[in-house]
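pinning this so it doesn't scroll away 📌
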Amino acid sequence: MSQTVRTAIVTGGSRGIGRAICKHFAAEGKNLVINYAGNLQAAEETAAECRELGAQVILVQADVSSAAGCEELFAKAQEAFKTVDILVNNAGITRDGLILRMSEDNFDEVINTNLKGAFLCMKLASRIMMKQRWGRIINMSSVAGVRGNPGQVNYSASKAGLIGITKSLAKELAGRSVTVNAVAPGMIETDMTGVLPDAVKDQLLQGIPMARAGKPEEIAAAVAFFASEEAGYITGQVLCVDGGMAV
């Protein structure tokens, strides 16, 4: 009896955590729809690495903060692979600043990409997954959404919002064998954290009981667990992968 090949959409899949998730899925033999915003070179590098692992891959450039962008993403996924079994809402941006200096545009940009974009994708995924009576939705939250972070009221709000959506949608879809969970990373070694001054990194590490930054592959492993067949009775949960930072 042949095993079902699952198809996964990963938004913001070209770099960092998104790339690690794509590669993990590729190693498991999943079909991949890698969404990216603008960095074609990074997206092509990720796709090449996933194909080397044996996966069928398509790239879709789309702005997930817009309904039209999300609809294009899902249309191309279904055209290529007929269905969508797994959705990972990983696309995210930051526009950091203290609230007194934060513009309304900087607030809206972060909410629109990180939270509204995930909502739009989940709405499209829900229709497909409810009909096929199987699905996995994994939302990429953050430790900033669990405990807050100064200078990130927009980012923290977007990531806390994802936790609320995760819990609510989990209840809506549970009867159709569709699970909805969230992963909340702490400080992870990515391009985003790589540009931080050493003094800032040292200060952040002092707040982590494990005294180190996490690796993108460690986040990918948590996402892959939630996407697995074995996690079919787990829904509405938030898994902090943060070295103890949120404890």
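📌 and the second one:
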Amino acid sequence: MVSKQILSTIRFVAGTKPVFHLSEIIPYLEESLSVEDLFKGISPELERLGLAAQKKGGDYEISRYSPQTAYVLNPEETARLTQFFEQRALPGLLQTSIEQYIAKKVGKDLTDPVLIERLRRAIVSQKDDYWKPQHKRVLRYVKGYSVLGYLAYHLPVYFMQTEYLLALLAREGRLKKSMTILDVGTGPGVVPLAIADFYSRLDTAKADIYSLERSEEHIEAFLTLRENCVPRGGKVSIKSPVKADIRSLDMEALPPKIDLAIFSNVLNELPDATMEIQTGIVARIAERLAPDGFILIVEPADEENATRMRSLTVALHAKGLFIASPCSFIWGTPCTAPRCWSFKAEPAIKMTRLMETLARCEESFRFVNTDIKYSYAILSKDPKTKEHCRLPAESKFIRFSKLTHHVEKRVNAAGVKMSGELGSARNHVYKICDGTAKTPVYAVLPSYHITPENDAITKAPYGSLLEMKGVIVRYNKTHNAYNLLVSRNTIISGRNPDTP
């Protein structure tokens, strides 16, 4: 623990100079310390002191921390992003770079049937492993054709998924004009490449991207794709990844102040990683978050991974982090995430050229990966949530924790839409949450009951607050869940999550 004398000295110097080097205070200290030892001691205290540190050669520049204003998209930027998402296609330069890398790596042309068949085998093997129980999975895309299969099958969806999440961050005011971003478990650089592509449509926003990766073959692919797809000296600087295992991470590998840390489809794939281990990894990296920084966790939408991720966010809340999105605790109560299968869906992307080649076979469906569905959470050190989604205590809506007392009764209820379509065209089903439920709650709308007054539930975006007047409470004994039956007499209004 750092001494009071050191802290008081730093506090005094910071009060007299807006910017100073850490080496400047060493002569005033009672104990003899190196700059590195001093930084290690004071690093956990910088946020509380309202200070930020940046490494400068063998020293650290200390400055008063001033939160940046949010980067607001202008109409031209919004139009460019809209056009990109309407195309639903991986950028041509990235497609070409992946094709060239695979061909060069194996010394065969992409028309070679042996190469194509080996890629297919790698993809099938990865998919078979993925659907095993979690304690039996390996999921190590670390060498040979497993890496190449990842580039061909997984990268396109994860790339586009990241672009959608960046757009969400921009709409929610979480991007800044200049950001330091850390991608944890970057693989072949999917997230950094997507960030660079996203920022290419912004006028003045800049980002420095750092990343961690343990696989040398992934790092090789990362560096090749960066060289081909990201211009040097541009608005986005992608640093070479640090080779590291995030389960035993040296904190010196991290930048001193992180505005956004991203865990994209990585935590669920850690072998033998218990909830406690995953929580510890995220909490350690959160120590380097800027006071107004965020952590973005993304996992697949399947029930096991999505529900586990929600439990992880509850565990992280106990570690001092707060859920900023997509959850809105509309009654201001803590959540226990009871079997919370929550995910977001986006329009399917177009197949890449390589995917089309792989799909030219009898079982083509095995090699087509175009659906975008994911579960995500944005966490911060700031306890403030979506205040515009709070309901006053006197609101005339029943809390979900009280539904057990109102089975078969018609009630007024309010909750946040926390899933895409879980049902069918005949019976629409959506997960609904108000932060108080101890048992999962779903809104059910039979298609023959759809009216202009209740159709908001099908059209409202993920994360929207829904006020439902006149729903019937039903208990589903088979699934131990409550259904809110929406009838033609129900009136539903939705509040968009991106606008106060």
